[in-house]
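Subject: Sanity check before I submit

Could someone independently write out the structure tokens for this chain? I want to compare against mine line by line before I put it in a report. The sequence has 294 residues.
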Amino acid sequence: MIRTNRDKLVCQSVIGEITSPLGSVNPYRIDPEGHSDVYPGVGGITYNLRVGDPAGDLFADHVEPGVSISNFTQYQGQPGPNRALNLFSCVGNTATVVSGEAKGKTGRVTGKHGGIEHVLIDFDPKVLDKLVIGDKIQIKAYGCGLQLTGYPGIKVMNLDPALLDAMPLGSLKNGRLAVPVTHEVPARIMGSGIGASHSHSGDYDIQLFDAPTVEQYGLDDLRLGDMVAIIDADATYGRIYKTGGVVIGIVVHSNCVLAGHGPGVMVVMSSAEGRISPIIDSKANLKHYFKKMP
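---
Independent answer below. Compare away.
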């Protein structure tokens, strides 16, 4: 087991309610080739898309798997409660339904989506059928400040310590950490979300518009919940291109048709000095890791 500072971390409640999908006066989304159509997008309860399912080859744009929640409370005219929900929720955290017919049922946080500022949660299909838009869900937010005490060159964020334990990490020579991933992604195709000042909430997108790159890196079979390695990148603070750096992230939402967008990746580890060694493993997905969590 990798040593951490988990005994110093705070577990605190955050809460949100299930959002509604959104529409606009102009419903069309236009792709880089000029084609337009009307696509399902963010929000709501998505019954037939969960972690482990394909992120691409869908008639969809930015669709979020499972349940999408937000906190609409305003504090002194500002969305502070929703910022807290998005900053402090970590993947793997327990989420409990606290209102409605499914009250008492639990799921797990699977990611965070920037721009719309949603937290995403996976539930069993029988629970999804009982949920309605507006139901409140409380999360035991645990993981903010998590550190790998033996790896000072690696920044960890957005991870529940129990999920970290479920990941088959390995210690290598020279202070490097082996991390299983399903794919490696070149930083040159990272799009929307690049340049954000931090990665404790939100995500940034893998652009899949360049067919030769998609084929070279085998990105046509990305799945929701996949752990991926972004090569020549750093997100220790802001998300940047950095030669030799490595970022580990989780695919949190579906592929997109809009230019500059694609499957969203939420950051969970970053090393500006490249002290992370990605190891290809087809089972490096939340669907498998959640089964190992208590």
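---
OP: Matches mine. For the report I'm noting this point. Residues 80-88 form the longest helix (9 residues).
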